[in-house]
Amino acid sequence: MDKKLLIGGAVVLVAIIGAAFMFMGGSTDSDPTHLTVAAHSNIKEPEAGFNSITGWGCGHQNYNPLVFTCLFKTDKNGDIVPDLATDYSISDDGKTWTVNLRDDVVFSDNSTFDADDVAFTFNTGRDTESDIDLTNIEEVTVKNSTCVEFNLVEPRSTFIYDLRYVGILPSDSYDNETFGENPIGTGPYVLDHWDKGQQAIFKVNDNYYGDKPYFTQITLLFPEEATWLELAKSGQVDVVPVATSSLNQTVDGYQFYEVSAGRAQGVSLPYLEDTGLKSPAGSKIGNNVTADKAIREALNVGIDRQAMCDEIFSGHATPEFTSVDTREYANPDAKVQDADVDKAKEILKEGGWTDTDGDGIVEKDGVKASFDLYYPPDYLDRQSLSTVFAEQAKEFGIEVNLVGADWDTIYANMYSSAALMQQTSPDPYKSIYQQYHSKEADDFYMNPNLYNNSDSDALMEQAMHTSDLSQADTLWANSALVNGGGWGPAGDAPFVWMVNYDYNYFIKDGIDIGEQPDGLGNDVLINVVDWTRTNETA
């Protein structure tokens, strides 16, 4: 290995560790109420600052925004319950949601929280370009100081997730240009200091309406994944994510904590044939190999998901088939029996794919069963998954050519080449509707293979429009397998979902993180107000 790389990595690591304690009185800080957390790669440092509608805690990541609270929250049982809200009701047509609010809350600057702030937040979020999608809101109106009405363009049973994950902003003092660096919220913490590129320091919000947290200060680091293990070994960081390469490691003074998040990882396969069409951005559409259902079926049946869990994740993962196997709206009938190479070969043969030249790769009408798979090389787990997927596919005659690339390049090729994708959201609008509902090419990463099935679409539309959430779950599940098709692997198989990778952390001995809701491991800080330290020093 290049010595310059080693030296450079060491310098970066020293800088990160040093920065973590510069504002804590040095590495000898023994205040037990100070907590230092290395952020997981899913909690990116926000380029636009700590603003709940432009990238901090919003969108597809859905983590605890610390300085904000939302109308609803997730309790230890995983249920969505009131937070800033007290209750809500839905009109018979599903287009009007009325939410009643608490009257005992103030912002961190001591200004009063009321319905004006809620209306302002959602109306502003609707009109702001960001990861969060509030375009189904027609208008939010104030009924009185403790009641707000959400008028939707069309009924949406999943709207509760928007109410759960949008942190409320102050209407009187919000300035889009400066707010991200000086956020004002109703959360348990306030941003005290932000060293861009290194860390953010949060201190307890004395105006917080909930139970006061034990930890009066949180230092949140934003390190590269390659440094995670060394940060834990330094002994100066309380919570550190565990990289795939470190799953068999132990660190003295730390406990290993594992929790699921429904983190489905898999390969998107272009669903359309190549007819010369291009997307609005000029990206090629279609792939004549992956558009053949026999190819997609063979891949889903032939790969060995359990082997991937064992080899890549040391058992800290479970096989994934539909992308929502762990959700309440999963459909077990949409799964297939995998790890059957002989069955995969049979499917290919029946589909007209045979190896006529003896090179081990099947072909049909002169076309080799070969396609490119794009993946982000800076994520070790996705790189490893892509490699093993290609190796397994070759066993039954399909050639997968690996292409490591940045996300802009991946998105530019997703309509014509396979891509290693991931999804975590518990919201079925994101995990099912946006992922599988028919759409025109728009260069947006959801439904990257342009999958379309009118029967599935109809069930998804019904699920979106019903006000009966239990009925919605049944409809979501049924859309995975309908009339011999659907987006599950037993249907049209537009994806090869492979693993559900758990989130893992090294947590310093003596820290009690309480009872966390199952299935939301991507947000280890979700209940940070309940955390304590049982030993006397940090």
How does this structure look, described?
By secondary structure, this protein is an alpha+beta fold. The chain folds into two domains: 3-260 and 503-533, Periplasmic binding protein-like II (D-Maltodextrin-Binding Protein, domain 2, 3-Layer(aba) Sandwich), CATH 3.40.190.10; 264-501, Dipeptide-binding Protein, Domain 3 (Dipeptide-binding Protein, domain 3, Roll), CATH 3.10.105. It has twelve helices and 23 strands. The chain has helices spanning 3-22, 115-126, 159-165, 228-234, 293-302, 305-313, 341-350, 380-395, 407-413, 428-436, 454-465, 469-478, and strands at 34-38, 72-74, 80-82, 85-90, 96-101, 137-144, 147-152, 189-195, 199-204, 217-221, 239-241, 254-259, 264-268, 317-319, 363-364, 367-368, 370-375, 399-404, 418-423, 495-501, 503-508, 511-512, 532-533. The strands form seven sheets. The protein has a six-stranded mixed sheet, with helices on both faces. A four-stranded mixed sheet has the order 1-10-9-8, with helices on one face. A hairpin with a 2-residue loop joins strand 6 (137-144) and strand 7 (147-152). Helix 10 packs antiparallel against helix 11. The two termini are 36 Å apart. Residues 1-12 and 19-28 have low confidence and may be disordered.
Summarize the structure.
This protein is an alpha+beta fold and 538 residues long.
